[in-house]
Q: What sequence folds into this?
C-alpha cells in the first residue's frame, strides 16, 4: 500500500467515523436532557459505583474544575447525588440516583436501536468483518496511547 493510499484510507475512515458519531450522538440523547459527556459520567458511575469527582475527572481526562460543572448540572437535574463517604466523612462521593439509572438505560436503549438501524445495511458476513476490523483498530488505539493503555469506563 502506498503512502497516498494510506492517506486516503485514513481520511475516509476519519470522515466516516465523524459522520457516524455526529449522527448517533445527538440522536441518542434527544429529549432525555443529557449531553454526551454527562451520559459518559452516568455510565462511569454505573460501572464504578459511587466515586470521587477527581476519579471521574481522571476517567474522562478533564480537569477537576470541568467535572465539577458537569456534576453540578447532573445534580440539578436529579441524576446524581453528592454524599459523604461512610468511611471518611470528609470525602464527598458522587453516585447515581434512580432517575439517573433510568435515563442511562433509556439512552443505552436508544443508542442500541440507532446503531442496529445503521448496521442493518450490512450483510451478516460484512457485519462480522466490519466488527472484527473495528475492534482490531480500537485495540491498537488502546495499546498505543502514549505507550500505556488508557483506563476507561
A:
Amino acid at each position: 500500500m502506498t503512502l497516498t493510499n494510506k492517506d486516503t484510507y485514513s481520511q475516509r475512515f476519519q470522515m466516516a467515523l465523524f459522520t457516524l458519531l455526529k449522527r448517533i450522538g445527538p440522536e441518542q440523547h434527544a429529549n432525555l436532557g443529557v449531553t454526551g459527556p454527562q451520559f459518559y459520567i452516568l455510565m462511569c458511575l454505573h460501572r464504578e459505583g459511587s466515586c470521587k469527582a477527581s476519579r471521574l475527572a481522571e476517567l474522562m481526562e478533564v480537569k477537576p474544575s470541568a467535572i465539577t460543572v458537569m456534576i453540578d448540572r447532573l445534580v440539578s437535574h436529579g441524576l446524581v447525588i453528592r454524599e459523604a463517604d461512610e468511611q471518611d466523612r470528609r470525602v464527598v462521593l458522587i453516585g447515581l440516583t434512580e432517575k439517573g439509572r433510568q435515563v442511562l438505560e433509556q439512552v443505552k436503549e436508544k443508542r442500541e436501536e440507532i446503531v442496529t438501524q445503521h448496521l442493518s445495511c450490512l450483510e451478516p458476513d460484512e457485519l462480522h468483518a466490519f466488527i472484527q476490523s473495528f475492534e482490531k483498530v480500537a485495540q491498537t488505539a488502546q495499546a498505543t496511547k502514549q505507550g500505556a493503555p488508557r483506563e476507561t469506563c
Remarks:
- The chain has six helices and two strands.
- The first strand starts at residue 80 and ends at 84.
